[in-house]
Write a structure and sequence with these properties.
With 358 residues, this protein is α+β, with helices and mostly antiparallel strands. It folds into two domains: 1-42; 43-355, Aminopeptidase. It contains eight helices and 15 strands. Strands 11-8-3-4-5-12 form a six-stranded mixed sheet, with helices on both faces. A three-stranded antiparallel sheet has the order 1-2-15. A two-stranded antiparallel sheet has the order 6-7. Strand 13 (326-331) and strand 14 form a beta hairpin. The N and C termini lie far apart (77 Å).
């Protein structure tokens, strides 16, 4: 009886220890969520885009649209804008992330700061709107002509000039510096839009993350690699890489058509990942482990903890996958994409602002 009693006491103690650990784990996770939320929102709590920069570039926009008048019975706030008879206010609760696909097949290696950081062949903004619980994705043409900071081959700042956005990542170390400079260039393009975090992934990881969800089915948008336009294919392994990466550089606007393929793939991947998570809820953890050697990000563990509990509540639909409008021209050796400033302005209002009513 004494032996049995001792066994019971040990089991009870173990049970209590497990309960305490679970409680501490829950408290720790809750603490991480709170910390992550505070970190995300405090970073840019007093910052809004400066749309006054668009005056003169956007059709129908004048300095009077920033005159600071009363707006429809609601007090005009700093940063409010008037456009085509309506008043708009930046949604400060929105969270925006920059995603980059880097033209590098290997794992991330920090390089000597200079000009060998690698170009960003895929550039997207992920926008999370907690007011509507909607997620939006904005695809940006790699050849977009915008202000980028130019550095020497030993890392010294030289000047800022108009050039293809893809080149900004090359002016850095292929890691944190390259990402920070790309983030700043994209922010400037969107009139100093706050960007809460970045994630750059070397494109050599594509086969790994593609196959982690069992492959992705698409209808080929054009003839590329072994694919023929209109055929339905299940992308597996290197086929996913070629569909997202390859293009005929001798064909006009090939970067724009590749961007269309990348947008199509992201939509299909999101659906495949959702199905895969129903079978394996640990998929995000596995994906993170798979990507870690190919990825550079400034999103911290507590921010990930917060986002992991929020993103499942968001809806994503093809209607909220946008591309910047503009025109592609031959720019000598390299093509150049010039953004339609009016369309960009209207897209910013649509995605990042809310109409002031009442």
């Amino acid at each position: 009886m004494r032996i049995r009693s001792n066994v019971y006491r040990i089991l009870i103690r173990l049970f209590i220890v497990v309960i305490v650990l679970i409680g501490l784990g829950a408290l720790l996770f809750t603490g991480l969520q709170i910390s992550g939320r505070n970190r995300l929102y405090n970073a840019y709590k007093d910052r809004t885009p400066d749309l006054s920069q668009a005056v003169g570039a956007v059709e129908g926009l004048t300095p009077d649209d920033y005159a600071g008048e009363e707006a429809s019975g609601d007090s005009w706030q700093e940063g409010d804008v008037r456009y085509q008879g309506s008043i708009y206010r930046y949604n400060k609760d929105i969270i925006t992330f920059l995603f980059l696909g880097i033209d590098d097949l290997g794992e991330v290696e920090v390089k000597e700061e200079g000009t060998e950081g690698g170009q960003s062949d895929a550039i997207f903004l992920l926008v999370l709107n907690p007011h509507t619980k909607e997620g939006s994705v904005i695809g940006i043409n790699r050849d977009t002509m915008t202000d980028i900071d130019v550095y020497s081959n030993v890392g010294g700042y030289l000047w800022t000039e108009k050039a293809q956005l893809t080149l900004q990542h090359a002016y850095g170390d292929g890691a944190q510096l390259s990402c920070e400079r790309s983030r700043d260039a994209v922010s400037r393009l969107f009139y100093d839009l706050p960007i809460h975090g970045y994630c750059a992934v070397n494109m050599g990881a594509i086969p790994l993350i593609n196959d982690a969800v069992g492959g992705v089915e698409v209808e080929a948008l054009e003839d590329v690699w072994e694919f023929r336009q209109g055929e339905t294919v299940l992308l597996k392994g290197d086929a996913a890489y070629h569909y997202l990466h390859d293009r005929d550089t001798g064909s006009f606007n090939s970067a724009g058509r590749r961007l269309d393929r990348q947008k199509q793939y992201l939509t299909a991947y999101a659906a495949a990942a959702a199905d895969a998570m129903k079978e394996d809820i640990s998929l995000p953890v596995k994906l993170y482990g798979t990507l870690s050697k190919y990825m550079v990000t400034d999103v911290t563990a507590d921010e990930v903890s917060y986002l992991a509990t929020r993103i499942p509540d968001y809806s994503f639909s093809p209607e909220r996958f946008y591309s910047l409008e503009g025109r592609t021209v031959e720019g000598g050796v390299l093509e150049q994409f010039f953004v339609d400033e009016t369309a960009l302005y209207e897209l910013i209002l649509k995605v990042f602002y809310e109409e002031v009513t009442g």
